[in-house]
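Hey, sorry to bother you again with one of my protein questions. There's a protein on my desk that I can't quite get my head around. No rush at all, and the record is pasted right below.
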Amino acid sequence: MSEEVTPKRRAGWPKGKHRQGPTHPHPHGLHKLKHTLEELGSRALDPNSPVGRELAAWRAALVADLGGEENLSTQQLALVDLAVRDFLLLQSVDGWLFEQPKLVNARKRAVFPVVVERTKLADGLTRRLQALGLQRRAKRLPSLSEYVAARDAEHAAAEAAQRAPASPPKADVEPDDVA
């Protein structure tokens, strides 16, 4: 005759409900988004979604401002990818914050903790962008001699393709039937 022990609940709380109110505001989802990005990286976002397209455009613009992907080292490309993640997190938190009626807890006379987290994200993004360099860099153009040599090589390849037969001649020999 064992009785089932149930945890006591406070009076006034509905059965099976979580506490709601000023001590438990709506979750902002920052930690879940961070965890997902750490686990899956860039695979977490569908490149065909509006967010994926916007991030790809922001990354392309950042790489172009840094002089193009061919002028960036592997370390710089890693910083670019981390900056894109930081940008996504920052935009997500900003979007959530702008939907809130207030950002200050009047009773405690302090901002909500997510505002402090947002500031840390912004500082992290700023540091990454500073490490990459804030000045726009021109794309490296080939010298005149390099350009002429590349153009001559292209013309020579095109002429060789025109002179060569379209397909190799077929042999009239049929393979022996094995019986």
